[in-house]
Amino acid sequence: MSEDDLSGDAGASDRPEWRNFYGRRMGKTMRQSQKSYLSEDLEALRPRGVTHEENPARVPIDPAAIFGNDAPIWLEVGFGGGEHLVHMAARYPAINIIGCEPFINGVAMLLGKIRAAGVHNLAVHPGDARDLMDVLPDGSVARAFLNYPDPWPKRRHHRRRFVTQDHLRPLARVLARGAEFRVATDIPDYMRQTLEEVPRAGFALVRHGGEPWGDWISTRYEQKALREGRVPDYATFARR
Question: Which residues pair with 73 in a beta bridge?
């Protein structure tokens, strides 16, 4: 696959107005505190110009405008309850991190953790990561994370996984050359597909095995996997 195939115009002709989304938007009834986080905190942390309502022409946004500075941007796709996202924001205060999560209960959990940690270098897109990647400029992201994504275990649902070209090609476009893409999962078949599909999208495998990264924090999803006897697996790729 050529570099030209992975980059391109960020105009409306290349960005679908509607696409399938698979997964939950909401779960069980939230606590009143979580509802308060959503009503009081989310709007200030949400990047502007990402939704189709705000930006129907899909004009590229300025990442520096999200945070008011030009620090490097990291991206976490599907942050779950937000443990890893907040941990990385606290550990790397000179980095700006955007988290994407369409599951609103998870967003509420993250907002509570942000309050508790007092971090200020986070932005939250409460929706499909592809909508954000539509409008980020080419090469604007310095690192990306995919931690314990929805496994979609049935074979007929494998096309719904993030590690398909419909997701990976937009990710490759917004990642800078040499940028790191980390994947963690406890599902062997998910890692199999990851190792097959990610290199096809313009990445080189750097590291794969059972040892996590030095700055890793074990999330609630990983702890659940360990309790149930599943083995975590970690892979690092670099954008070619």
Answer: 96
